[in-house]
Design goal:
Helices cover 44% and strands 17% of the residues. It has a domain of 229 residues: Rossmann fold. The protein contains 20 helices and 14 strands. It is globular. The longest helix has 16 residues. The protein binds pyridoxal-5'-phosphate (PLP).
């Protein structure tokens, strides 16, 4: 399978180049030149397969010969070694728990798969890979833990000062070894702008073999399709075959993967794009006017993205036809007060604790179901992170109900190794060159 640039469909590269380039030189994003349809037989019998089996089948089809099957299977079995259970909360309301990986967020799927794919392609003694990644919280931890100790790689993580939670900060700043963390005096968009500027800087590219681990990397996106198929498999086992997915969205990689899964034949009735106050996409779906904005800080900080990078991929899947897009995707936006209310409502109704991102997806699902009382579809909202990553958000009676995983307790007391920098590109560039 080759991958094209969304800025110029004539620019086409093999998977390996798409993974290591991360972004095409023209500033577009890579997408597969064709999207394979999985067989109806496979889709209808998904309930007979395990998550790694589903992941292998999906990856084999979309990568189509890019990695020999035996190697691909080994990569998947190593990367996708934790569960993604669908838990029923009430009739037709289910939560897909995506936080059972090492960094306790759904980004573990993308980061673990990508790190292993890169390491696989690096086998034949190539130049050390420098991974640059901007994070608004969860990416950093997933990438740090995904790459920690992977030979011939080095990771530099940029995160916005004061805008990530203590557990997130520990996950990205305490690793040492081949992981470096930079605390940027700015927003996530500033961090992302620094990474983007580095990729087009001639001097840095001459010195380093740069790649990105953000959700813009196609190797992050592909493995996120796996859990949509696997969620559907779990519904089939409960006798359900119609589904609505509600996805807490920031940079739109997660929902983008869901829409890719739909393109591959997964029968999804509706996607709900649930955002916090950073409502660029819901506003576009309502008004037809796409207007990227500066990001604003919210309680669901992993979704504080005003200019979602992956939106261009989703547009491409619909050939920019707004009418078709609106048939499949409905946008919802909620502020911090509504987020807190939703956390409390979920706890009161189900005795279940959701993180602030997940709470927004739950609320969007309930709103959609209220307006579609005729629908027989099962609603699944995606739980993108474990609530223990955001302890400051919860009222005491809720936070005491959160069971903190052992991996978090082990990190406590470890020193931060992060480097503070301003948001100017020159300072970042000088630091990279001085710490080569
Ligand atoms: C990254 C993240 C999101 C947003 O996902 P996108 O793919 O950027 O839309 C939502 N919730 C949590 C907890 C995250 O870490």
């Amino acid at each position: 399978m080759n991958f094209y640039s969304t800025n110029n469909p004539k620019v086409q590269v093999p998977f390996k180049d798409a993974v290591f380039n991360s972004l095409p030189q023209d500033g577009g994003l890579y997408m597969p030149v064709s999207i394979p349809k999985l067989s109806e037989d496979f889709i209808n019998n998904l309930d007979k397969y395990t998550l790694p089996e589903i992941a292998f089948e999906v990856a084999k089809n979309i990568l189509a010969g890019s990695i020999p099957e035996k190697d691909l299977k080994a990569i998947i079995d190593d990367a996708i070694n934790f569960d993604a259970p669908v838990v029923k909360l009430e009739e037709d309301v289910y939560v897909l728990e995506l936080f059972h990986g090492p960094s306790l967020a759904f980004k573990d799927f993308g980061a673990r798969f990508m790190s292993r794919v890169m390491s696989y392609f690096l086998r034949d003694g190539e130049k050390m890979l420098d991974v640059l990644v901007a994070t608004s919280g969860d990416t950093g931890g997933a990438v740090a833990l995904g790459f920690l100790g992977v030979p011939n790689t080095r990771v530099t993580i940029l995160y916005p000062k004061g805008k990530v939670s203590p557990i997130q900060e520990q996950q990205l700043t305490t690793n040492g070894q081949n992981i470096r963390a930079i605390e940027v005096d700015g927003t996530f968009d500033d961090c992302q702008a620094l990474v983007k500027a580095a990729f087009v800087d001639t001097e840095l590219n001459a010195q380093f073999r740069l790649t990105s681990a953000n959700s813009i990397n196609i190797a992050r996106l592909i493995p996120q399709t796996f859990y949509y198929f696997n969620a559907y498999a779990q519904l089939l086992r409960q006798g359900k075959s119609e589904v609505v997915f509600s996805v807490p969205s920031g940079n739109f990689g997660n929902i983008g993967a869901g829409i890719l899964a739909w393109k591959m034949g997964l029968p999804v009735k509706q996607f709900l794009a649930a955002t916090n106050a950073n409502d660029t996409v819901p506003e576009y779906l309502n008004t037809g006017i796409y207007q990227a904005k500066p990001s604003v800080a919210t309680l669901s900080n992993a979704m504080d993205v005003g200019a979602p990078s992956n939106w261009v991929r989703i547009s491409h899947l619909f050939e920019d036809k707004l009418g078709d897009l609106k048939k499949l995707i409905t946008g919802y936006t909620y502020n911090d007060a509504q987020t807190l209310e939703s956390i409390e409502a979920v706890f009161a109704q189900y005795n279940y604790v959701v993180c602030p991102h997940t709470a927004i997806a739950w609320r969007a699902l309930k709103a959609w179901q209220l307006h579609h009382p005729e629908s027989k579809a099962a609603g699944i909202f995606l739980s993108t992170a474990h609530p223990c990553k955001f302890p400051e958000v919860f009222a005491p009676e809720i936070s005491t109900k959160i069971v903190v995983p052992a991996s978090v307790l082990e990190m406590e007391g470890k020193a931060s190794l992060s480097v503070p920098l301003g948001k100017g590109f020159d300072g970042f560039k000088a630091w990279l060159l001085g710490n080569g």
